């Protein structure tokens, strides 16, 4: 087995940003970054030939790699890694929950090694991003693709799978020319992990505060040439997103860059219906197309009223409306709510003149729309 160590040379300003973000999640001295290289995808038929880690010590980031340079030292490699990792409490990786960690566990069991990584707090950067795949819109979510999205500047032509053949060649002919691409790929993955620390910001997207600083109405023509109105909300956030966020659904559009963003939300000027609860306590008046309570209906001629049904137990109102959605707990943003028809799933509330001037309401509503667009 061969152990390779190195102190990373990272630009100071960039490093300060990374460390500041990471310290909000865990102490630097408790955190270990992990990436492994294997001879295949199945731990039953393959083995680990390289384990790489990054750790923080003496005000610097260090890399350590355990490399099986004989093809027979996997057990020693794993034992050395476990002994080293025992001092850390947080393990950072990319998609390691699906591959690296199960592979390590399976190989430890196969080799009869005692020890486990289960006591460590596992932080999978891929799993943090997973809920937001619909707004990131990347072609795939391989580590290098995500690094490119965040602008790390890393480019590699060979993948871990490509390097399996290189490792096999190295075992037959150990030389620097074959060793370099193996260790350098793992090193690039490790440095890439460090560069993806801003992904931790996505853990806080559901609770990110939005403060509307400006609101305006705008008119546009839809694809059919029909004149439409929308509300545009310009807002600030209490987070700095590492890359622009875009989302579109239900006629609403969101864009966030850095710590500011804009929301476009359709405004509907039309007649809608408020459906009363407890329809059995109401009568429907066909001539007036409205429902009234039994108490009032007692003064109406019986020929002009019929018992209300759920679908006609309403009152109509023409006004300006904004869309709203039920939260995960089934709550609505604002009551009373209006609908176009009884079976229509779309929900709205009246957008009054008072609300147009209420900056706190606009910020709360921006947050409501934002969470809907993110699907949270």
Task: Explain the overall architecture.
The strands form 3 sheets. The protein has a 6-stranded mixed sheet with strand order 1-4-3-2-5-6, sandwiched between helices. It has a 5-stranded antiparallel sheet with strand order 7-8-9-13-14. It has a 3-stranded antiparallel sheet with strand order 11-10-12. The chain is built from 11 helices and 14 strands. 28% of the residues lie in helices and 33% in strands. The model has no long low-confidence stretch (mean pLDDT 93). It has 2 domains: 2-204, Nucleotidyltransferase, domain 5; 208-276 and 313-374, no CATH class. It starts with a strand and ends with a helix. It has helices spanning 12-23, 74-85, 100-110, 125-129, 133-136, 143-149, 163-172, 176-195, 294-297, 353-356, 359-374, and strands at residues 2-7, 31-38, 48-57, 60-67, 90-93, 121-124, 210-221, 227-249, 252-275, 282-285, 290-293, 306-307, 314-324, 347-350. With 376 residues, the protein is an alpha+beta fold. A hairpin with a 2-residue loop joins strand 8 and strand 9. The protein is elongated, with a radius of gyration of 30 Å.
What is the topology?
Elements: E1 2-7, H1 12-23, E2 31-38, E3 48-57, E4 60-67, H2 74-85, E5 90-93, H3 100-110, E6 121-124, H4 125-129, H5 133-136, H6 143-149, H7 163-172, H8 176-195, E7 210-221, E8 227-249, E9 252-275, E10 282-285, E11 290-293, H9 294-297, E12 306-307, E13 314-324, E14 347-350, H10 353-356, H11 359-374
Parallel strand pairs: 2-5, 5-6
Antiparallel strand pairs: 1-4, 2-3, 3-4, 7-8, 8-9, 9-13, 10-11, 10-12, 13-14
Helix pairs in contact: 7-8
């Amino acid at each position: 087995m061969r152990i390779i160590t190195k102190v990373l040379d990272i630009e100071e300003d960039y490093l300060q940003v990374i460390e500041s973000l990471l310290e909000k999640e865990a102490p630097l001295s408790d955190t270990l970054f992990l990436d492994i290289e294997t001879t295949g995808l199945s731990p039953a038929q393959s083995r680990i030939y390289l384990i790489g880690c990054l750790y923080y010590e003496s005000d610097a980031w260090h890399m350590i790699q355990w490399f099986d340079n004989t093809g027979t030292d996997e057990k020693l490699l794993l034992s050395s890694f476990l002994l080293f990792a025992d001092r850390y409490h947080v393990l950072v990786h990319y998609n390691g929950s699906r591959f690296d960690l199960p592979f390590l566990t399976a190989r430890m069991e196969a080799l009869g090694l005692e020890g486990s990584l289960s006591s460590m707090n596992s932080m999978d950067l891929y799993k943090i991003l997973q809920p937001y795949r619909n707004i990131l819109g990347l072609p795939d979510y391989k580590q290098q693709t995500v690094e490119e999205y965040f602008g790390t500047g890393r480019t590699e032509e060979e993948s871990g799978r490509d390097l399996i053949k290189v490792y096999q060649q190295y075992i037959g002919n150990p030389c620097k020319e074959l060793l370099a691409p193996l260790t350098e790929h793992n090193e690039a993955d490790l440095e890439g992990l460090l560069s993806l620390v801003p992904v931790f910001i996505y853990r806080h997207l559901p609770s990110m505060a939005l403060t509307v600083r400006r609101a305006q109405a705008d008119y546009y023509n839809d694809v059919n040439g029909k004149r439409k109105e929308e509300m545009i909300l310009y807002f600030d956030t209490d987070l700095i997103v590492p890359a622009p966020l875009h989302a579109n659904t239900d006629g609403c559009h969101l864009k966030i860059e850095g710590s500011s963003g804009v929301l476009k939300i359709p405004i509907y000027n039309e007649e809608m219906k408020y459906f009363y609860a407890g329809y059995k306590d109401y009568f429907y008046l066909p001539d007036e197309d409205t429902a009234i309570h039994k108490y009032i209906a007692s003064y109406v001629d019986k020929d002009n009223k019929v018992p209300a049904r759920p679908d006609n137990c309403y009152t109509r109102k023409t006004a300006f409306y904004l869309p709203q959605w039920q939260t995960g707990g089934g709550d609505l943003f604002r009551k009373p709510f209006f609908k176009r028809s009884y079976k229509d799933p779309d929900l709205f509330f009246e957008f009054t003149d008072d609300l147009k001037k209420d900056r706190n309401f606009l910020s709360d509503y921006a947050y409501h729309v934002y969470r809907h667009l993110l699907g949270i």
